[in-house]
Structure formats: C-alpha cells, structure tokens
User: What shape does this take?
Amino acid sequence: MIYDEFVTQIEGHGRIHFEIVNDKVVEVRLEIHEGSRFFESFLRGRRADEVPQMVSRICGVCPVPHNHCAVQALEDAMGIEVSEQTRMLRRLTLSAEMIHDHALHLYILASPDYLGVNGITDLYSKFPDLVKRCIKMRSVGNRAIEIVGGRAVHPINSIPGGFAKLPTRADMRRIVKDFKSIMNDCIETFNTFANLKYPEFERATEYLAIDDGKHFPVYAGRLVSNRGLNADVRAYRNYIKEVFKPYSNSKFCVIDGHGFHVGAIARINLFKDRLNPIAKDLLESSQVKFPSDNPFHNNLAQALEMVHYAEEVIRIAEELAVKLKDEERPKQTKDGTGVGVVEAPRGVLIHEYTVDKNGIIRGANLIIPTGMNTTNIEEDLYALLSMNIDKPKEELKKLAEQLFRAYDPCLSCSTH
Amino acid sequence: MKPRIAIFDLTDCEGCEVQILNSKFIDKILENVEFLNFRLGQKINRWEGFDVAFIEGVALTSHELELLKKIREHSKFVVALGSCACFGGIAAINNFMDLEEAKKYVYGENADKIESLYVKPISEIIKVDFMIRGCPIVPEDFERVVSDILAGRIPREHTRPVCMDCKSRGNPCQLLKGNVCLGPVSYGGCNAPCPSAGMPCDGCRGPLEMPEMIAELELLKKVAQQDDIIRLFRRYAPMVTPFKEVAGGKL
Assistant: This one.
C-alpha cells in the first residue's frame, strides 16, 4: 500500500483494484484505506449537547449534514419538538452547504477529468474564470453557514432544540443579497456541465432519497426509492444492511442484497418535479434528460442542484428576513432511541442515538452516504470495465477512477 | 523559482485542506507556489525535494507511519496542519478508552481485521518544524505561514489566550455565565468563533505555553462535575501537556 496509489481528487484514501483474465473482469474491489476513528464508540458517555459539534469532525467537506442529522436524531430520542423556524434555518444551512460542496467537487475535483487538466493549479492557469466562479460561489455558501452556524467548517451553535445563538433579520437580508449575486454563476455552472461530454454508460439501479411530502429532499423525511421502497427512517435497519469486506475499512451497504445509489442523481431522478422554478425551467429547456441511469450524470445533477438550492436559500432567507424571532430552546422530555435523516451533498445520511434520562449518549450508529454507495460503485465498475474490456489497462484505470470520482465519494465519512 | 509545496493528509476529515481552499487569497497562493504533491487537488504528484510539506491528520495505520517518515526525508520544512497533526485531535479520544471494545462495538466480529494505532501528535513520530493549530485551522494562519515562506522568513507563533480574541469581539464571558470554557488556557488567534456563536471555547488550538491550569481547573470545578471537565479536555487537543494530564483524569 503506497500513498501514490490512492485515487486523487476525492475526499479520503481509497483505491480501485481490478483484475482481468482472458478478456473477462474477474474481480473488482473498492478498497477504502482511510483509518477508522470509531466515532460511534467514543460518543458513548458524552452529553447530547456535545455530539453535534463532535460529529461534524467526521468530515471537513460536509460537516453541516452531520451536525443537522445528529440534532434531529437526538431530538427524536429526547422528545424535543423544534419550531418551524429552526427547521427552516436547518434547511437553509444544508442548502448553503450544497452550494460550496458541489462547487468544490464539480470544479476542483471532477472538472479536470473532462477538461483534460492535471488539477487545481493547471485549471486556474487555463480556465481562470471557472476557478474564480467556483471561489465566489463557495465563499457565498460558506458565509451563509457561518452567519447561521458560527463557522463554515465545523458549525458551532447548532445543538439539540435549536441554535445557541440566532442570526438576525439583517443577517437574512445579507444572505438574500449574497445568493442573488451568485444565481447567474449557478446557472452558468449548469450550462458548463451540460455541455461536457460524459462517458456513455448506463446501468439500471435503485435510487434512494428522502421525502418529507413537500420539499425537494434536504432535511428529514421517509426513505423512498424508484423501486417502491417507502419506509419510516426509524425502520432503516429492516431495509439497509451493512456488510463487512476484509479489504475495506468502510462497510458496504445493500438493499435486498444489491447495491443502490444515493446523492444528487437519486434526488433529481426521484424528485425533479419538486425543483425550484429556475432549476426546473433550466432542465426543461436543455438537452439534458432525467431520470438518467448514467452514474456520470451525477455531476450534471449536482450542477442542476446548485441552482435549485441557491433558490431555496433565497426563498427561506427572504421569509425569515421578515419573521425571524428569538425563541426559547425546548428541553428534553423523554429518553430512548432516536433516528435522524438528512440529505448530505453525497446522499442520504442516517444517525441513530440512544440517550438516557440525564441526556448522556448510551449508543450510536451512523450510516453514511458513501457507505451506501460503495456496493453500487463496485457493481458499476464491473459493468463499465466489462463494456470497455478491449481498451488498454491504463485507460481502464483512468475510466474507473473517473467513475468513482463522479460519485463524489467521501472516504473520511464512510469509515468514520 | 516558486516554493515547492506538498500537502499530505493522513486519517482525518480534510477540513483543514478545505480551509486552505476557503482562503480569500487562494488565487494568490495558486499563482505563487508550486504544488509538487497535493492528492486532493491534482492527478500527477511527485516525490522530489519539498521546500515545505504540510501534513494533516493522524497516523492510525502502519502504512501512515511509513508515509510520515518518507515525507520527512523529502522535506526541508515540515508543518503540522491542524489539531489532529499537532495534538492528536478527535481520534485520540480512543487513547483514553478500551480500544478493543471500541473496535468490537463498531465492527463486531470483524474487529480484529481493523488496524488502529495509539494516536500521537506527528511531532512524536517525526521532527516537525512548525504547527498550524486549530480544529479546523483558520485560513489566516495558513496565509501568514505561506507569505512568511515566500518572503524567506521563518514563521513564528504569536501567543495569546482565546480570551483576547473573545474580548475584542465584545462577547459576554462564558465562564462568568457558569459554562465550562477553556478560553483562558487555550491558544488564541482564532478570532474566538465559538464564544461569538454563544458556545464556550473547547480548546481546539491547544494550550498556551504557560497556561494558568490550577486557577482554570478551580474555576471549572465550581461549575461542572469532574467527568464533564475530563471529557472537555478529551476533544480536539487531548495529547499535549497539560491538557493530556487532565484528559487522563488528573484534576
């Protein structure tokens, strides 16, 4: 195992191992070598108030979903009913996270595959406008999280019951102004990624996202799929099974023994009818077609989502600019086990905690989007490599890594 | 000749690298340095003489230990990036717990297939020339170190407690409110985001050089139970004296 074998331009350490014998793919292994930090274990004995900040440290790219999933699960366990205002603020920060996170992935990590450049420095010298656009969108997304959550990487003040310190109406006006200033950049992002040439590949699979009955997936809801799954998230263990494979520190998830896909492509495939108006019009007036069974189109789905979530932030912030008010944080009313679910940029994220009557954590289980995608990635890789078996090995390696990257995997998350 | 930089990550959350990308001057950084090795940011990475190597995260596997030594051999100047590399970070909480039980809790019957070493600051494994503290780092610290390097200066630390940052932002004192706050004994320069967001400081930037620990612990004992105090020191900088001793139960 040497560092140089790890796939570049993804979050965390993993590599793809495949073997071809007599023009047949005989083995594909997604090896995830990021160390395990045993978050689920060391959270036991902590106070519920400490958990949301600590679990954000699972991932510095997507800390907000971990925080928000944790507060939701803890509130479920402790019998805390939060206000609609709190839920709106959480939808706002999750949506803002999508902006900075998708921009990071699309421009810095994924676009070099399509533009034929080495990486960020190269991209900046050849396509400075793209990098500047990315920086601008990311700083706006980050600033909104900072305004509401206290800090962009590892938000501070979001705790069970709500926020330790609330933003002001003026803050909301600032966020509206900020996001209006990048709306065009988000639209241009979609246009840029709609005009790229994606590898031709299709494989039908199960797409999973969350449904709160009203919004495009972002915060809380039931587990739903294109193959008829519709379940309360508290029953997730009945559907999503985790399998251990000896070559990976990350567990592999399956539904009924097969892989499934979570993330931007799953959300768009299932809920494109709930997109905000500008995103919806963009999709309808373009050549792009969803639902799509091409996993490379996950990048395209992310670009479309940037428009939708920017609209979402504006919509929520405009409403709160008028009616945001100070609130008391509700307190613990019971003990027991609770489950939370949010859409992280990379897909469905589930946290489950058992809390005792003193507010101390007694058990924890976390299921991470990249962990959910691992089986599907292996199945996709097998099909993709089989289809291109006549190409030289070096080219296959490149294609395999490009597919892995299209999923926007997060390996620090998946091993946690 | 631009300075030749490498950015490596071990086991971590990569949040400190994200903070580098969040820098207001990221475009200037891209223009003025050459990244020889930066796995998160580029495809072709080389092992040549690095003027500066930034290392984020902790070594949890034997392969990561080897990697640390290899980076040291290739670098003139090594910078520990973030509190995991500087002080063991959040993964070091396992040092104070039963590791075998932790593995079993997470991996069940497959626990013995998971390698996980005792977590040390990387300065206990290789020579480290400079630290950029924090969970996560603040981009300003990275900018300062890079501009020092560009100007041919050796970077230096500016020691002051978090309380200085906190007071300059006009926050009410968390300790006076009766909360367990590590501001007085913790290394400032972060602009005090936690107390400014209504939460106490949890000491993520590690201890000051000569912290008033006895007075701090006396204050904390008035407002919190012993277990709570111990857990507070077992968060983001648990493997550095004198935080380490409290995290280990010496109050």
